[in-house]
Amino acid sequence: MKSFHFLFYTSSHGLGHSTRMIEVANNIPSCHKVTFATCAPEWIYRSSMTRPYSYRMVKIDTGVIQNDFLTVCEEETLRDYSDLLKHREKIIKEEVTWNKINKVDLIISDIPPMAFPVAKNLSVPSIGIANFSWDWIYRPMVKNYPAYSHVIESIQKDYKQADLVLSLPVNGDMSVFPCVKPIALIARKSRLSGKEIRQKLNIDEKKKLILCSFSNFSMVKIDFSHVSEELKDFILISFNSEFPGNYNNFIKLDNCGNISHEEAVAAADIVVCKPGYGMVAETIVNKTHVLYTSRKDYIENKILAEGLHQYGIAEEISNEDFLSGKWSAPIKKLMSCNKKWENIDCSGAKIAADEIFKLLQR
Questions:
Q1: Residues 6+ positions from 314 with CB-CB distance below 8 Å
Q2: By the 8 A CB rule, do 110 and 128 touch?
Q3: Could you list the pLDDT tens digit for every one of the 362 residues in the chain?
Q4: Superfamily holding 194-335
Q5: How far apart, in whole angstroms, are the C-alpha atoms of residue 55 and residue 33?
Q6: Under 8 Å between Cβ of 32 and 24
Q7: CATH classification for the domain delimited by 5-186+347-360, as one of 3.20.20.380, 3.30.470.20, 3.60.110.10, 3.40.50.2000
Q8: Strand ranges across the sheet with 164-167
């Protein structure tokens, strides 16, 4: 079999883009070379990849800028992408040069727009894997800040150069892409049982366990003293560096330590979070209840919340009650819910890997 070199351009907005591309890359035989180009931290790849890979720190898109867990900075986001576009031709030229030198055979994007003109200039196939496009995310922001309409125009121009885009379930508008093919969910599923994971953490399996999953956004506005008092019969765990360790029922986890995020999700009775694609997918596949609070006026939030309610078991908490630590009432409601879990196909990573090889054979 000929050995190919695959380059993954991955948005660094949150960790969901990285975790799903890791799942795809792990389904590519190790005789092929895989490189990730992203601003996402390398530890997420180092802790989750099961095959050899290379990592490049490259800024090729903006994502969404947030100054805390719940607030999207619209103008700052658009300004940052607009500033990036001032260097667009230079970025594309430098990436084409790197790809030529390193003999890249195919480019995968989740979902930086500039990845596609890089592939066109390189004369190699390109494939997108996503549940949304950045023009769809930015469109409501541009309505508020119309001076940045050129950002949408540039993104759409780049996206139209994609050879194929694989659309994940729980998706937004993907109509900008010329060729879209739906696939199954991509999600990280724990290989260990909840009982085994709790043994690793030295947590009694009879104890009710809550995972607070906030990426690494600031948590200083949350009244954890009230949370600890209201939920004194629960154990709360988190990977967040600001998670307080001065409460008897709180445990701070290490991102590169004893367990992975998907294992923490599988071990927990409830995950408390904001809806993000990686989080939604992991709670669905690991069958864990979700208490979520929403980023107001963020267009993706609506479809992710709908996905949680359709395929999972979820309850929403207001921003105000979330920050003031009034979690007990919605958690009791979640614990008493007797809804049956929907079956959803979670083989998207394997399907995506197969589609990548099919594209090479065209």
A1: 289, 290, 291, 292, 305, 308, 334
A2: yes
A3: 689 999 999 998 878 999 999 999 999 999 999 999 999 999 899 989 999 999 999 999 999 998 887 889 999 999 999 999 999 999 999 999 999 999 999 999 999 999 999 999 999 999 999 999 999 999 999 999 999 999 999 999 999 999 999 999 999 999 999 999 999 999 999 999 999 999 988 899 889 999 999 876 767 789 999 999 999 999 999 998 889 878 999 999 875 557 899 999 999 999 999 999 999 999 999 999 999 999 888 999 999 999 999 999 999 999 999 999 999 999 999 999 989 888 889 999 999 999 999 999 88
A4: Glycogen Phosphorylase B; (3.40.50.2000)
A5: 11
A6: no
A7: 3.40.50.2000
A8: 54-57, 33-38, 5-10, 106-110, 126-130, 164-167, 180-182
Whether 162 and 109 have beta carbons less than 8 Å apart is answered as yes
Contact 276, 303 (CB under 8 A): no
Please report, for the chain, the start and end positions of each structural domain, with discontinuous segments joined by +.
5-186+347-360, 194-335
Signed CA dihedral, 356, 357, 360, 361: sign only: negative
Q: Distance (Å, rounded) from C-alpha 155 to C-alpha 263?
A: 36
* Residues in contact with 302: Cβ distance below 8 Å, sequence separation at least 6, in sequence order: none
Distance of alpha carbon 212 from alpha carbon 253, whole angstroms:
11
Angle between helices 88-101 and 115-122 (to 10 degrees): 50
Q: Is 36 exposed, middle or buried (0-12, 13-18, 19+ CB in 10 A)?
A: buried
Task: Let me know: does 4 contact 30? Beta carbons within 8 Å.
Answer: no
Whether residue 287 contacts residue 265, with contact meaning beta carbons closer than 8 Å, is answered with no
- In angstroms, rounded to a whole number, what is the distance separating the alpha carbons of residues 198 and 263? 9
pTM for this entry: 0.94
The token duo for 1 is 């079999």
Determine if the peptide bond prior to 111 is cis (ω within 30°). Answer: yes
Alpha-carbon distance of 166 to 128, in angstroms, equals: 6
Residue 187, token pair as written in the block: 């999600």
Instruction: List the structure tokens of 207.
Output: 């104890």
